[in-house]
Amino acid sequence: MSNSPESKIKRAIRPQTSLVRGGLMRSQFQETSEALFLNSGYVYDSAEAAEQAFNGEKPRYVYSRYANPTLSMFEERLRMLEGAEVCRGTASGMAAVYAAMACFLRSGDRVVASRALFGSCSYILKELLPRWGVETILLDGTDLEAWEEALSKPANAVFLETPSNPGLELVDLKTVSDMAHAAGALVIVDNIFATPIFQKPMEFGADIVVYSTTKHIDGQGRCLGGAVLCSQEFDDNHLRDFLRHTGPSLSPFNAWTALKGMETLDLRVQRMGQNAMELARHLDGMAGLKRVIYPGLESHPQHELAKKQMLGFGTMVALEVEGGKEGAFRLLNRLQVIDISNNLGDAKTLATHPASTTHQRLNDEERAEVNIMPGTLRISVGLEDIEDLKEDITEALKP
Hints:
Blueprint: H1 15-21, H2 47-54, H3 69-82, E1 86-90, H4 93-102, E2 110-114, H5 119-131, E3 135-139, H6 144-150, E4 157-161, H7 173-182, E5 186-190, H8 195-198, E6 208-212, H9 214-218, E7 226-230, H10 232-246, H11 252-262, H12 265-283, E8 289-293, H13 303-309, E9 316-321, H14 324-334, E10 339-340, E11 350-352, H15 364-369, E12 376-380, H16 386-397
Parallel strand pairs: 2-3, 2-4, 4-5, 5-6, 10-11
Antiparallel strand pairs: 1-7, 6-7, 8-9, 9-12, 11-12
Helix pairs in contact: 1-3, 3-11, 4-5, 12-16, 14-16
């Protein structure tokens, strides 16, 4: 089934409009809100019609593991926003990351990746892929000389996050993409922290972009979901059949929730980014904190790169609290407004201690390599009044 549902809008529309109307397909009942098709299967007028559907002679919906009208609307809306040829929804962000690599990598292939990754992404690269004979090279993503050396010989894929989780390190997308392509590699970018509002990796040479739609796209802590955005060629040759036959499909209800979340995505992310910038400035240099990390601060070592490749500095702030783990836990336990949660991109501000949660699989040395210290906290800044957020952390930091 095509990923491009028909629309009455035949001219180009701007991103904010596409977030509200992109991919809209109304049923014969002409509903205002997008319809939710909860069915798993579809019926046919005849045995001949079923045969034609399965052999591709007459494209149509045949099974919701393959495609579903609600899912198609979501995929088309995100495809338009990202500027990709194809979008495929998945059951979670990690399903998207795994599918993007597993659908085309083979034994003997070589993957080069930034070391600063979400814990589950690191697991795929360090433990799963090597089991299948895929060589994985992990490096400091901020070090262009390390990329140049690793990509001086052929590779099949490059995988990276920028900004990284949770240290907010940036990778130079244009330079690394050029190196990767020269080495024969496809570039896969996890764009979750930046969001499709604040960064467009494909404009800098990325071939594949992945999201956890659980985060900002839903943005209200309701449903799991993910997405892979790519070229039509990659989808035709690798991704479509992999998803169809391995089954990591996004449920219609979760697709509908993400679809509705996209209507306010720009408004929410812009406000969250403003709050994050103001909070970072407020906390920078405050007693009780060793450092405040945010790409929008001039103190960030890659502030200039952030200005060059990001449209906004993001919704995430990282703190290093004095007193290590004990100091970080003390701050977390004294918060009254901000919740302790490993989720992010939510309307509610959330804080987590990566070393004991999202990155607890790493040993102390591995965490230090990606700048996760015992006192590191990740703050996902939400939509509350910024003064309440400032006061909450300021009070929690008092002796």
